[in-house]
Amino acid sequence: MPQFIQERPGDAALIEPLLDECFGPDRFKKTAYKIRENIVPQPELSYVAVEEGRLLATIRYWPITIGGTTPALLLGPIAVSPKLQGKGIGVGLIRETLRVAQDLGHRIIVLVGDPEYYGQFGFENAAVLGFKLPGPVEEKRFLVKECVPGALKGVTGMLAGAPLIPLPPGRVATQAETTRLTEQLAALSPPADT
Q: pTM higher than 0.90, yes or no?
């Protein structure tokens, strides 16, 4: 069964061939790639699916701004090995990373993708809300998700890459993060009397 884990430094060398296999070398001409030029993905939201040492899938999120002021994330690319597509790995990666993004306090996520597929995760048309991309894209494929109710209110404008703002060391975990982590801990049994 595939395991979803944060991307490790050694995974980058395996991710690029997977992206080539899924999207081809012309992917660099796409508008979403232009936005991602000269920025780095959010490490806490860059995940891979692995099984028995094999990399099966990847997903990344990138820091952006909308209208030059509103912080957001750009989701993508997400790629699953062609032999394993349709088995729920992509859906699992998206659900897990969206949950983590919300736990970390991210408010808005945008992407370019199939509206029928991404609608199941709560994405809707971004172009009709006044969002713009710095290049061509089929309008119906330009999507946005509000992670916090009301986050999209009054937000419009051009998307642009933003510098990575790392999580500060020693930051206090959110209540959602704390609850999720403590639920994963194994119950401790009291020490045996000796």
A: no
pLDDT tens for 16-40 read 899 888 988 788 788 888 899 889 9
| Alpha helices (runs of H) in 49-133, residue ranges in sequence order | 89-103, 115-118
Q: Minimal CA–CA distance to 21: which of 55, 61, 45, 67?
A: 55
Contact assessment for residue 3 and residue 50, using Cβ atoms and an 8 Å cutoff: yes
Question: How high does pLDDT run on average in the chain?
Answer: 88
Q: Do the domain assignments include residue 87?
A: yes
Distance CA 60, CA 47 (A): 6
Helix (H, G, I), strand (E, B) or coil at 15: helix
Range of 123's domain? 3-184
> Domain containing 171 — which CATH number?
3.40.630.30
